Amino acid sequence: xxxxxxxxxxxxxxxxxxxxxxxxxxxxxxxxxxxxxxxxxxxxxxxxxxxxxxxxxxxxxxxxxxxxxxxxxxxxxxxxxxxxxxxxxxxxxxxxxxxxxxxxxxxxxxxxxxxxxxxxxxxxxxxxxxxxxxxxxxxxxxxxxxxxxxxxxxxxxxxxxxxxxxxxxxxxxxxxxxxxxxxxxxxxxxxxxxxxxxxxxxxxxxxxxxxxxxxxxxxxxxxxxxxxxxxxxxxxxxxxxxxxxxxxxxxxxxxxxxxxxxxxxxxxxxxxxxxxxxxxxxxxxxxxxxxxxxxxxxxxxxxxxxxxxxxxxxxxxxxxxxxxxxxxxxxxxxx
Length: 335
Description:
The protein is an alpha/beta fold. It has helices spanning 14-21, 27-30, 58-69, 88-91, 102-110, 153-164, 181-189, 202-209, 236-241, 243-262, 264-274, 280-289, 300-313, 321-328; strands at residues 46-51, 74-79, 97-101, 115-122, 127-130, 144-147, 174-177, 195-198, 213-217, 230-235.
């Protein structure tokens, strides 16, 4: 399901976008000189991202210096305390642009909130862990699965996996709502849940403690390894009002992803130095595992279509995949 798109109707090409990103680097981390200003400056010098509790979102943090190179003098990270608010901060306008999980954004698009997807950024951060009684996704039938909330991203992702192998997620699985990803992991480690969906640094912590085993690794196992798990999305009003700023901000995210792919050791040190993850080994393991350079060739539209179709089939979203793509995406800054 890999597709390349070189040129859009307005004449902006992915090739040109790639060429422009090649000129950038995280200044304080890689000591890359400031690029020449070859494009109009951003219409605003302020941009707000989010500080999320997930080190797989490393490009969002490394983007800080790159955003300054792109002309943003005010780069703010809004704290997001709960999973329920991950994407709501975009819809409400509390943040302008951020990385977010595909399954966090799909319900927002389905509700026709003021959010638009701009690009895919990486895949593979989620791993479905099970106990000794679970060795395949089908074996979750009539078992207990811990999720942060019904309708939350982890619930929807697991539901998609179940539906894909013929298990009815609405009737054949016992969902244990825990309110947070941390509590889902606690339920799994304490034995009150048979499975849960982990994301960095949770998989690294479980492997270090030799707890459970991986049922599905979305970085390796098909079809999940074919599709983005995380995308870059933005507030629709911000995109409409500040198109140049949007393009420059998106480029900073993508270049930051390239840094994670090319020099994970330096990126891990950056995360530790900034206090996003105190354990260098955990950060490095997560960064080395994830294919951060796949944004260059994978097609985000294929991702949205695949997952939206699964959720639509089991009644978890009302909109058709094509409606979500038509109304909730804007590829002109990348394609």
